[in-house]
Amino acid sequence: MLLPLINWLYLRQRIRAGTLVRTEFPWFGRHVDLVTLTESRLATAYELKLGALGRALEQASLNRLAFDRSYVVTASKPRPENLDLAAATGIGIIMVRKHKVEQVLQSPRIGRDPLVRKRLLEAIRKI
Questions:
Q1: Which residue of 21, 67, 69, 88 sits 20 to 30 Å from the alpha carbon of 39, by its own alpha carbon?
Q2: Poorest-confidence range of 7-21, 45-59, 84-98?
């Protein structure tokens, strides 16, 4: 799922020259599957899950506290109640099936706490 997602992000210009890309990024005792930081300082987290969308939404909501955008990337079609929960909490959903990638729900950009954001940006750049 990761390679098709990265290719899709590149084609959509969400990854460009100068974008920092981190996999298995350590953040507050957990690992975020994929993190991007653009030159304009937009930090986005992606949680990849084949199933267990509820657990992925929980992880993505924790990411939402620090990242400008947060997404769940899944191989299965989300149930309506999970779509509603994601929309209510500002979490985007991207579906990857047989190398076809579709954004089901956009994650809105939300400003974060300046101290948390500073720590996040330092951590992303340090690795």
A1: 88
A2: 45-59
The model's pTM is 0.94
Sheet of 20-27: strand order equals 20-27, 30-37, 43-49, 69-74, 91-97, 100-105
By residue range, what is the domain housing residue 90? Answer: 2-126
Instruction: List strand residue ranges (DSSP E) for the chain, in order.
Output: 20-27, 30-37, 43-49, 69-74, 91-97, 100-105
The total of structural domains in the chain comes to 1
- The CATH number covering residue 33 comes to 3.40.1350.10
